[in-house]
Design brief:
- The complex is a heterodimer of chains A (452) and B (319).
- By secondary structure, chain A is of the alpha/beta class.
- Chain A is 45% helix and 13% strand.
- Chain A has helices at 3-7, 24-36, 40-44, 64-76, 91-103, 119-124, 133-139, 145-150, 173-179, 189-199, 211-223, 247-261, 274-282, 295-305, 311-314, 348-358, 361-371, 384-389, 393-402, 412-423, 431-446, and strands at residues 53-58, 81-86, 111-114, 152-153, 156-157, 160-166, 168-172, 202-204, 229-231, 241-242, 286-291, 316-319, 334-341.
- A five-stranded mixed beta sheet of chain A has the order 2-1-3-13-6.
- In chain A, α9 crosses α10 (189-199), α11 crosses α20 and α12 (247-261) packs across α21.
- The longest helix of chain A has 16 residues, at 431-446.
- Chain A is globular and about 60 Å long.
- Chain B has 319 residues and is an all-alpha fold.
- Chain B has one domain: MetI-like fold.
- Chain B is 68% helix and 1% strand.
- Chain B has 14 helices and two strands, in the order αββααααααααααααα.
- The longest helix of chain B has 35 residues, at 24-58.
- Chain B is flat, with a radius of gyration of 24 Å.
- The two termini of chain B are 28 Å apart.
- Classes of the chains: A alpha/beta (452), B mainly alpha (319).
Chain lengths: 452, 319
């Protein structure tokens, strides 16, 4: 999933190497490295960590993971201490940093917050410690299906489901009413674009050339009944079969082009990400948007700070992702974060114990309420506090049950970037041809015959 | 009117000319020279020559970082893949465009600033110099973000301030089109590195002997003539060195593109391509080959500057 929604850009912290207590060993190494070169090396030179210190590489958030780490440290009663280390802001850079460290057998990583589409790549490369059977049983109990699927590779659970994200169709109650749209019933892309054009409002989606474009395309093709990858092949990338030219692939491209060419999108549609989409929805032209649940606390926060009229978040409504075809249920995007334990960790058992603590219902509820990141555990959705903070929590849960993960393959980066290159800008998409061009590009890239 | 330069001073023959046997003094000086420069030379070998050699070696392999077992020797295949790919040539075009535009504009602007600094009152000069240098002290990523925010359609001020300009309106999406995106990238680069070029030119200006200026003045040369016939010919070496440094720098442009467009709309530079193959795609072999080609391009530029324009680096140092 994409960067922005996961990490709450508005509140995201700047990069910082390693948080938490300073161990003497690290301090010494840091001083030596600092004397020689830049302090940036200190974080890399941090060595293994004692038997009881676990380092958890987290994606930037509003401080929730650091708090959960502190809670679990306390709960462990001295058996282990969890330190957090901050990864870059966007998912692609998080993957780049982790994978390069793991390729160098870096044993300073114990736990990792992983973006689901990259999990197969980590697992296939042997970077994830196997999940013990009893742990696997416990962490998949009462967990939404998409989160389990997103933590699975080659038929086995390879990561621990933590929080699960999904995009909803956000709409302004007033706009839907004015357009006469019955939002209690599923709506299609055609309907919302038409409603926005009639009311002179905006439809927001992520048209920028980034991971979020793949997220959108994947949701469209899955909603149309197809898939980006129709035939997976973990070992030989040349055997991967793509469904971009299928009927569903063409239909997805049609919707993409229709939305991008309509009068209902902003002038900056080809550069709009989750954050700018949310900003557009907050403006007076806001009508509809597909986006992650973070947009709601974001608007509430802005209203509290006085930068947004309080009537705006009151006008927010949430529904299931729009359908591509009237009669086929939508397959909303699935994202979030799952926890991986490094294969090079010195204490994988403790790391799995810590992971179980991190994903406890209590911590997931806390994370949901304070950071706006939806839980993967179904029990959390019955928590009265969660329901109070997120009145649309039942919609989120339903959306997660319907959600379709992005293609699971160790070559995800190639496929996603190939799609981004071919389908951007969305207004240039030619339903018949773009799928063919993308298929050819991805085939050539996987065969190492083309640059990306 | 011909150009006016001082006759070049004849340099002393090196004491260690091959004919004569080196004297004791020359030998001990050479030894001292090695002792002084040796550590720096060793560090240079370690931090530049070693990575270059390793990249060259790895560029001959099909090697994916996550799959080291299947690493295989493929000879020059990676180079063939790159050189037959239109994306490579498109990136070369973009890089060359950015280089030519930014270096040309910077040279003119930088020269102007250098003249201002030279002519400024003695009391003002340090302040002016510091003020002009500030953009150069800003980290490129920070400057790229600043320019991106300024031109952003939602948070930027450019669209509302410059709406009176033809082609600019409230709805101008600067990063949504190739040429407008490249324009902003070039602007950011120019803003940031003009100070560098102007400092180098300032050093060159200071070298132009005042006596030549006075002689030209006595001969009745106008200000414009003095600039073109006296000042510029006398600082040719400084101009060439400034151009060379900036061209090499500009050819490796990465940060601004990474921040502002992430390569969208055909704005990928060669460095960006190397990043994407090596870091994002984890294809170490292919990425190394892109890096080696980039290195060769940079060497070619440096070589042609030195040979074609006869840039004498020693002269620019005032030797």
């Amino acid at each position: 999933m994409s960067a922005i929604s996961e990490s709450h850009p508005a509140r995201a912290q700047t990069r910082a190497p390693v948080q938490g207590r300073d161990r003497p060993r690290r301090r010494l190494a840091g001083a030596a490295a600092g004397a020689l070169l830049a302090s940036g090396l200190a974080a890399c030179g941090g060595g293994g960590g004692g038997a009881s210190t676990l380092t958890w590489y987290i994606n930037p958030d509003a401080g929730g993971q650091a708090e959960i780490a502190a809670r679990c440290t306390e709960e462990a009663g001295g058996r282990y201490t969890i330190e957090t280390a901050l990864l870059p802001r966007d998912a692609a850079s998080q993957r780049e940093q982790l994978i390069r460290r793991l390729a160098a057998n870096d044993d300073s990583i114990d736990l990792m917050s992983l973006d689901p589409p990259f999990i197969p790549e980590f697992a296939q490369a042997g970077f994830l410690a196997p999940v013990p059977d009893d742990v696997a049983d416990r962490v998949t109990e009462d967990v939404v299906e998409s989160a389990i699927e997103g933590s699975t590779w080659d038929g086995e659970l390879v990561a621990v489901p933590f929080w699960a994200n999904t995009q909803l169709l956000w709409y302004r109650l007033s706009v839907a009413e004015e357009a006469g749209l019955d939002m209690s019933q599923p709506v299609t892309w055609d309907q919302i674009v038409q409603a926005a054009e009639e009311t002179g409002t905006l439809v927001g989606a992520q048209g920028t050339r980034a991971e979020s474009l793949t997220v959108w395309y994947n949701a469209l093709i899955e909603s149309a009944g197809g898939s980006i990858i129709t035939e997976s092949s973990p070992e030989d990338p040349a055997q991967i079969e793509l469904g971009l030219t299928s009927e569903a692939g063409v239909r997805a491209a049609e919707v993409m082009q229709m939305v991008a060419e309509s009068d209902a999108v902003s002038a900056a549609f080809s550069t709009s990400n989750e954050d700018s989409t949310a900003t557009g929805f907050e403006s007076e032209d806001g009508g509809f948007q597909v986006n992650y649940p973070f947009v709601y606390p974001r608007a509430l926060g802005a209203a509290e700070e006085g930068t947004l009229d309080p009537s705006v978040p009151e006008d927010y409504g949430a529904a299931i992702f729009p359908r591509v075809d009237e009669d086929t249920p939508a397959a909303p995007p699935y994202g979030g974060i799952n926890l991986g334990v490094s294969a090079f960790s010195e204490s994988p058992e403790l790391a799995y114990e810590a992971a179980e603590c991190i994903v406890s219902d209590e911590n997931q509820a806390y994370y949901f309420i304070t950071n706006g990141n939806p839980a993967s555990s179904t029990a959390v959705y019955d928590d009265p506090e969660v329901l109070e903070a997120f009145p649309m929590a039942p919609v989120i849960e339903e959306s997660l049950e319907l959600a379709a993960p992005r293609p699971q393959t160790p070559y995800y980066n190639e496929i996603s970037v190939g799609i981004q290159r071919s389908y951007h800008p969305p207004s240039s998409v030619e339903p018949g041809q773009t799928g063919e061009a993308a298929t050819e590009l991805i085939r050539a890239v996987l065969a190492k015959e083309d640059l990306l | 009117m011909s150009t006016t330069t001082l006759p070049p001073t004849k340099k002393d023959e090196p004491v260690s000319a091959p004919k004569a046997r080196a004297s004791d003094r020359a030998r001990s000086e050479r030894k001292l020279g090695w002792l002084l420069a040796g550590p720096a030379f060793a560090v240079m070998l370690l931090v530049t020559a070693y990575p270059i050699l390793q990249a060259t070696y790895e560029s001959l392999f099909d090697y994916r970082l996550t799959d080291p077992e299947n690493r295989s020797f493929t000879g020059l295949t990676n180079y063939w893949v790159i050189l037959t790919d239109s994306l490579w040539w498109q990136s070369i075009g973009v890089t060359a465009f950015i280089t030519v535009v930014t270096v040309a504009v910077e040279l003119v602007l930088g020269f102007g600033l250098a003249l201002v600094m030279v002519k400024a009152l003695r009391a003002l000069r340090p302040v002016l110099r510091a003020a002009i240098l500030i953009p150069y002290a800003v980290i490129t990523v920070v400057s790229a973000f600043a320019w991106q925010f300024a031109f952003d359609i939602q948070s930027g001020f450019v669209n509302s301030w410059f709406a009176w300009l033809p082609g600019v309106s409230e709805n101008t999406d600067w990063f949504g089109d190739r040429w407008t995106a490249l324009l902003v990238i070039c602007l950011a680069e120019i803003w940031k590195t003009t100070p560098f070029i102007s400092l180098l030119l300032l050093a060159g200006l200071a070298q132009v002997p005042e006596v030549l200026q006075e002689a030209a003045k006595v001969d009745g040369a106008t200000r414009w003539q003095r600039l073109w016939r006296v000042t510029i010919p006398n600082m040719k070496a400084a101009i060439m060195v400034a151009l060379l440094f900036r061209t090499l720098d500009a050819f490796r442009v990465f940060d601004s593109i990474f921040i502002m467009t992430a390569g969208a709309n055909g704005t990928e530079s060669v460095s960006f391509l190397a990043y994407r193959q090596t870091i994002a795609r984890l294809e170490i072999g292919l990425g190394s080959a892109v890096s080696v080609l980039l290195f060769l391009a940079v060497v070619l530029i440096a070589f042609s500057f030195i040979k074609l324009f006869k840039v004498d680096l020693a002269q620019a140092r005032g030797e």
